[in-house]
């Protein structure tokens, strides 16, 4: 197994030097889910929430978070993202909202953290906007689903849930 990349030879945390890496198109997809009471999901779907369109606000929050990942995650490179997509899909059968976030860049380092941050912040925004009616919501299964590009090539989660 290779060593952790954010540690230097003395074991100190450092930002990885990517200056020798080739610029390639890189893309990452992350997913998550917010489980809630059926009546909470119904309120969201009917647009009856006093705070407005909950799904639209969560989508924008996820996109904004992806763009600011380097400000939130120490040692994460600032990237000029070329695309960010955040999809929120209501799932009435499981009484939840499924989240999928994808980020794309032409650069020297990957966008996994940006996709994970987008999915996480979209989930947190859903929670924040609905907590007054359902404090028992659960944010779960935030995970990297797929990444493409760069030296390590293509990877896809085999155990997708």
TrEMBL record:
Pathway: Cofactor biosynthesis; molybdopterin biosynthesis. Residues 15-150 form the Molybdopterin cofactor biosynthesis C (MoaC) domain. It catalyses: (8S)-3',8-cyclo-7,8-dihydroguanosine 5'-triphosphate = cyclic pyranopterin phosphate + diphosphate. Gene3D superfamilies: Molybdopterin cofactor biosynthesis C (MoaC) domain (3.30.70.640). Its EC number is 4.6.1.17. The keyword Flavoprotein does not apply. Keywords: Lyase, Molybdenum cofactor biosynthesis. Substrate binds at residues 75-77, 113-114. Coiled coil: none annotated. It is an enzyme of class 4 (lyase). The active site is at 128. SUPFAM superfamilies: Molybdenum cofactor biosynthesis protein C, MoaC. It comes from the Bacteria. The keyword Magnesium does not apply. Catalyzes the conversion of (8S)-3',8-cyclo-7,8-dihydroguanosine 5'-triphosphate to cyclic pyranopterin monophosphate (cPMP). Homohexamer; trimer of dimers. Belongs to the MoaC family. This is Cyclic pyranopterin monophosphate synthase. The gene is moaC.
